[in-house]
What we know:
Layout: E1 4-7, E2 10-12, E3 15-17, E4 22-23, E5 26-27, E6 32-34, E7 37-39, E8 44-47, H1 55-63, E9 71-75, H2 81-84, H3 87-93, E10 98-101, H4 103-112, E11 119-122, E12 128-130, E13 135-140, E14 150-154, E15 159-161, H5 177-183, H6 186-201, H7 205-218, E16 224-226, H8 237-248, E17 253-260, H9 266-280, E18 284-289, H10 295-304, E19 305-311, E20 314-315, E21 318-319, H11 321-332, E22 339-346, H12 352-363, E23 366-367, E24 372-375, H13 380-401
Parallel strand pairs: 8-9, 9-10, 10-11, 15-16, 17-18, 17-19, 19-22, 22-23, 22-24
Antiparallel strand pairs: 1-2, 2-7, 3-6, 4-5, 7-8, 12-13, 13-14, 14-15, 20-21
Helix pairs in contact: 6-8, 6-10, 7-8, 9-13, 11-12
The protein binds MU-OXO-diiron.
Amino acid sequence: xxIVEVRNKIYWVxxxxxxxxxxxxxxxxxxxxxxxxxxxxKEVTLVDTVKHDFSDITIKxxxxxxxxxxxxxxxxxxxxxxHVTSIAEIMHLAPKATIYITEKGKKGLDRFYDTxxxxxxxxxxxxxxxxxxxxxxxxxTPMLHWPDSMMTYVKEDKVLISxxxxxxxxxxxxxxxxxxxxxxxxxxxxxxxxxxxxNILMPFGQLIKAKVADIQKLGLEIxxxxxxxxxxxxxxxxxxxxxxxDMASSKAxxxxxxxxxxxxxxxxxxxxxxxxxxxxxxxxxxxxxxxATPMSAAIKEFWKARGMLVGTPTLNNIMxxxxxxxxxxxxxxxxxxxxAGAFGSYGxxxxxxxxAYEEFKRMGLEIVEPGLQVLYRPSKEDExxxxxxxxxxxxxxxxxxKKF
Length: 404
Ligand code: FEO
């Protein structure tokens, strides 16, 4: 029970985490999976492990196929804790196995474990490992998304085991894209890919384009993409590749995300006429209230839209704390090719809108100035100004969007 054949004796032996909702701060309403793969060949090979809490499950899955003592090779594509922290248990059961890992991966592994007891071989891009009837090709993918990251390509089966890349945080009975679409929807899967990309891979767009180009140059035929989280792409691996290329090229919807917080509802009241103005210019508008919405969901909505309006009250002459937290988080993700503006209510001296623009400039976003500030409660005249502000911002978004 539990194991799934991905292709020709390449088995998924991972674990489903139905319960996780906070993945190091990233909110995962659909849970996740930790995928790892066992290849039965002359030399039995395990690619990746799982999060430590799930060691027993992957070991049980491996035992359902073979005696773990016979594992000859363990490939570690990535040393983040959700993939490597069962390594001690695996190596305890397979003490004669050789670990294949990148140089940076080994340096990291040395910090987490006493690796002197293990046989470890460092590999680099282009290195191959013959395991019998198959050849594994290693492809380093530094900073996608850790310095140690690599992928493993199973040449004869045209399977790319891609670690975090192309993954999604979805816990499901489905293991494959075609199975998920039967019980969920294509939109759910696409949205999960965008969510994952926005929160984890947004800073690395240029590297993604270069790595996909490298793979294309190598002429690798890819019929299955097997990531370390979520759904395996067997029906349409080209779809997720194209989605990644599009996102890396800053494809976005010609729409606006209003991301705001409010203290005594005045900034919130401003969002309504602003949203109406945006809609009347023909653009879709999503409104996201911070503190009521997980940070990772706000990041995803930012990423989907070409334009962002930030609403922030002034508190003690600076931005509202939740807005400041959101913008700091966003700055770390190094967003590109988005246009931004800010608005908000103030009581005494103002200052939050000015600070928001300073953050936009630090991020290198295109900006629409000036922002809009309202003293205390918006009056009828202020609401008209808000509507005009929204309309004007939407016009600028449409103009800017033509560049892409
Ligand atoms: Fe799923 Fe970078 O760990």
